[in-house]
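Hi F.,

I've been meaning to write this up properly since the lab meeting, where we talked about keeping a consistent format for the predictions we share between groups. The idea is simple: the sequence comes first, exactly as it goes in, then the structure tokens exactly as they come out, then a line or two of notes. No screenshots and no reformatting. I'm using this chain as the first example so we have something concrete to point to.
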Amino acid sequence: MSSPPAQTAVTEQTVPYKVLTQGLVFQNSNELQWWHSTAPILSKLLLSSQYDIHQQYQFLIFFREHIIPVLGPVPRRAEGTDMLQHQWNGVHLTGLNLEFSYNLTHAMVRLAVEPVGALAGTDEDPFNTAAIWDFLQRLSTAPLTEKFDTRRFRQFAEALIASEEELGAAMAEEAEGPQRFLERVGPRRTQTLIAMDLNKSGKILGKGYLYPQIKSLITGVPIKRLFFDAIRASDPEGVLATQLANLEEYLDTRRPDASREAEEIAKGGLSLCLLGCDLVPPATSRVKLYGIDEQVDWENIEGIWTFNGRRTDPESLKGLELCRKLWDIMPLHEGFCPLGMDVFVGIGAETSAIRCPMMVHYNLAPGIEFPEPQVYLPTFGVRDVEVLDALTVFFESQGWTDMAKFYKANFVAAYPNEDLSTTRHICAWVSFAYKNESAYMSIYNHSFEPVGEEMNGTGSKVLEK
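Output, unedited:
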């Protein structure tokens, strides 16, 4: 069993962020605003999680040098409203292309980013295809990235994402014109994103993710087939063959039947949507396959966890029992929740009526019969303070004393301009797996605190005129 995660009270003064800001020069006002709207959150996360002072500076500098420049334009306020809109897609339900997540079990900070190119969204780069490869090249030179290797990711990319040539041909061949093809694709046009674990060793573990929806649209090949063909091609020795077969058999039992009504289809359907792998040498790169389940209920959790009763070893059942404890504590919207992955909610939009589906990923690794599941409980649309209170109760039940004592207050301190008793968009997901005889949990958060365009007295400088 792992040790309880570390947590300490965060102070009002986030010293590394404030000190660094005095000496930073930004290329443009977008970079300046991104820094002041996101770096304070990151700084407080690092501080409260007991990263040593050197690591706090290391990771904030990494964030400034490698992440801030690829975020593109900041969200702008929609005319006549209080809602902020981002012009590109996003990794978060608010449409933001940056997300901080937090491994609660190890008190470890993580981030996910969808790099945006200078021409993204224009006729020259309507699908933002160039930015990812430039970003990966930049990351490969960063001293903090550990055993950085993109070979497995590139192999998956060839199989799962549409190339510039395929996209150009599809737009040219669309009978109703290129704009109609863009409408068919929907708002999620970037096909990749990158995530990073900020390890307390001082190193960064990179992870790459791929969305094959556009490839499937162009080729007519179902998403499930694209995924399984790509994974099998990357595994010529067949070390994942047994668990792939077991996963495929389970997914076939969850295939929607188009003859049924919408809610019945959702209850029976688990839709694959995303594949991830570690950006390390292929021999040690984990593969994760993600799916969405629009029927949020315990019966589906049981099926996902046990492969409809086939994965019932004592360790798995202990994990399921603990998952049930979390399920009973969390304030969730249960039932049919049909919000799709191609839907984004603007920052500041009304979210009380939002009903999000749950997610799952299956971790494919050699030597096991069934891939290990991790479930994502949807908390977007639930009052954030209720989510934090429920987590506190669960922390107490697990003997996570520091987390129970400090986590809620630290979370509130990271969003000083928000009233978490009324907001419903900051806590998006709470994930659960069972590892080393203990809960393995993370929380995925909205990661942007808007600031004004003028930030006098910050010490920051902008090069552009």
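Notes:
DSSP finds 15 helices and 16 strands in the chain.
Residues 15-462 form one domain.

If this format works for you, I'll send the rest the same way.

G.
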